[in-house]
Amino acid sequence: MPKHNFLPNTFTFNFTNAYYLAKLSSLVYRPLGEIGDILKNEYGLTQFKAFDVGDTQAFLAANKDIVVLVFRGTSSLVDWLTNVKFVLTPSAVGKVHFGFNQALDLVWEEVYDTICTWKDRNQTLWVTGHSLGGALATLAVDRMTEKLLDVSGMYTFGQPRVGNKEFADHFDRKMKRYSFRFVDDEDIVTRVPFPPYQHVGNEYFFDRKGVVHKENIFWNWFRSSSESVYLRSVDGGSKFALQNPGGIKDHDAALYCQYIYNNLPREIKNSFKDYINKV
User: Fold this and answer.
1) How many angstroms separate the CA atoms of 96 and 266, rounded?
2) Residue 203: inside a domain, yes or no?
3) Residues forming beta bridges with residue 58, ordered by sequence position
4) Which residues pair with 61 in a beta bridge?
């Protein structure tokens, strides 16, 4: 009997689905060879395929109701933040981060072909990821929808910005009502790359106490102001770090899972309260 439930035909924002996908976004950090049995026993997902090319890791999982694509984040956050060059490159509409786009290219054809093969019973399709995984999820959804593949929803956790305003506007015209992006307080990864990059989808923001707010207006203003300080400063990196003392801690995938769990309806919590500290 699976420990986690999913509502395959609930396309509006839902904390039960958010928690399910957050746990999968955390699970993908496990060795890929260990994941198949966990998905079957704990999530009710009987089909599994892993992708591991270069620095890009992901998996597809499915049952008779859903197909889920899960991207992994980076294994070395500090190196990624300091070494990745934020270069914009053209996409179908607008410009996107060159490194993110290149990382998706490594697995894209095989991922897309597998989805088209597996989605044979009108299952709903979901895409998710934490950190860099959220960026790759966004680019994958953009490519899928350009190919007229129906994506039912995307939930991301602690993801960076992916593209410029033209890209973000085009993405939101297609997918905003089905795209949900979680930000934890000072999570530094959600603050990069700096403008002209822009976020997509609907933001759900956790404050310092783990209380969720939808698109916190004050925090959006503060972030924008802080980024302007950074961009104008020769020693901007130091200022940015001082403004975000919890920036690395708040990026933890397990913390996102915990905060989302705290917001679940009581009856859902009770169904697996003894399971919360496991996978």
Assistant:
1) 40
2) yes
3) 51, 71
4) 48, 68
| 8 A C-beta contact, residue 28 and residue 133 | yes
- Residues in CB range of 207: below 8 A, 6 or more apart: 185, 213, 216, 219
Asked if residue 258 is part of any domain, the answer here is yes
Contacts of residue 145, defined as CB under 8 A and 6 or more positions apart, other chains included, come to 151, 174, 175
Q: Are 130 and 159 in contact (CB under 8 A)?
A: yes
**Non-local CB neighbours of 262 within 8 Å, separated by 6+ positions:** 210
Residue from 91, 71, 74 nearest 82 by CA: 74
Q: Residue 213 class from Cβ within 10 Å (0-12 exposed, 13-18 middle, 19+ buried)?
A: middle
Q: Residue 2 falls within a domain, yes or no? A: no
Burial of 209 per CB tally in 10 Å (0-12, 13-18, 19+): exposed
The CA distance from 183 to 158, in Å, is 5
Helix segments in the chain, DSSP class H? 15-27, 32-43, 77-83, 98-105, 108-118, 132-146, 165-175, 217-232, 236-243, 253-262, 266-271
* Structural domains in the chain (count): 1
- Top pLDDT among 178 and 220 is at 178
- Write the DSSP assignment of 137-160 as a string of letters: HHHHHHHHHHTT----EEEEESPP
Point out which residues pair with 71 in neighbouring strands.
Answer: 58, 129
What range defines the domain where residue 102 resides? 15-217+249-275
Short-list 136, 153, 149, 119, CA closest to 17: 153
In a domain, 153, yes or no: yes
CATH number (domain holding residue 149): 3.40.50.1820
How confident is the model over 80-131, as pLDDT tens digits? Answer: 655 566 789 999 999 999 989 999 999 999 999 999 999 988 999 999 999 9
Q: Which two tokens stand for residue 242?
A: 């001082």
Contact assessment for residue 87 and residue 98, using Cβ atoms and an 8 Å cutoff: yes
